[in-house]
Design a protein that fits this description.
This protein folds into 2 domains: about 70 residues, no CATH class; about 90 residues, Pectate Lyase C-like (3 Solenoid), CATH 2.160.20. The protein is mainly beta. Helix content is about 0%, strand content about 20%.
């Protein structure tokens, strides 16, 4: 059975992708909430203002994918196909999602809400968190080497259980590295 292949198409809010491969496509305003997107391949696609909340992304392929202004609550990214996995997020709501044990080096998270997100044992080497809210985000045995946290806020990262060599923090962000000690730091 031949797999559906679509290239260079723009999809509106009422268009739902079927199983197959989508290359160089743009999705705008689509509602994938609670949808089954399993095993669909998205290559060099852009998603603008889409809702992915609680979608099933089991074995879904995301290669060179850009998410802009998307609502992506409760997604289990660790279930995606990790081969060639690469994506970026700008202005997205990713709260309550999980990147457990994922290798997502050089990932860009920009202007996004990442509350209660799980980065346990994830490799985020050289990733950038630009102006992101990391309230109650979990970093547990994560690789954060050369990660840029300078403009992000509300994070709590334990340097004793995470690899943070050459990671970048702002002076105000240092509090997020020391909060486990329950000490008072005055500004």
């Amino acid at each position: 059975m031949q797999e559906n292949f679509t290239q260079g198409k723009t999809f509106g809010k009422n268009d739902m992708p079927t199983k197959g491969e989508y290359e160089d496509c743009t999705f705008s305003g689509s509602n994938f909430s609670d949808s089954n997107l399993s095993e669909i391949k998205f290559i060099n696609c852009t998603f603008n203002d889409c809702n992915f909340s609680l979608a099933n992304i089991n074995k879904t392929v995301f290669r060179e994918v850009k998410f802009n202004g998307c609502k992506m609550l409760g997604l289990r990214f660790y279930a995606c196909n990790e081969f060639g996995l690469s994506f970026s997020f700008d202005g997205c709501q990713l709260s309550h999602s999980s990147f457990y044990k994922m290798k997502i080096k050089k990932t860009i998270f920009k202007n996004s809400a990442l509350q209660e997100i799980d980065f346990t044992e994830a490799d985020l080497t050289q990733s950038v968190f630009d102006n992101c809210d990391l309230t109650q985000a979990v970093f547990d045995h994560s690789i954060l080497e050369k990660v840029d946290f300078r403009t992000s806020y509300n994070y709590s990262i334990d340097p004793e259980i995470n690899r943070i060599k050459k990671a970048k923090f702002s002076v105000l962000g240092i509090i997020g590295l020391l909060d486990k000690y329950d000490i008072e730091i005055e500004k």
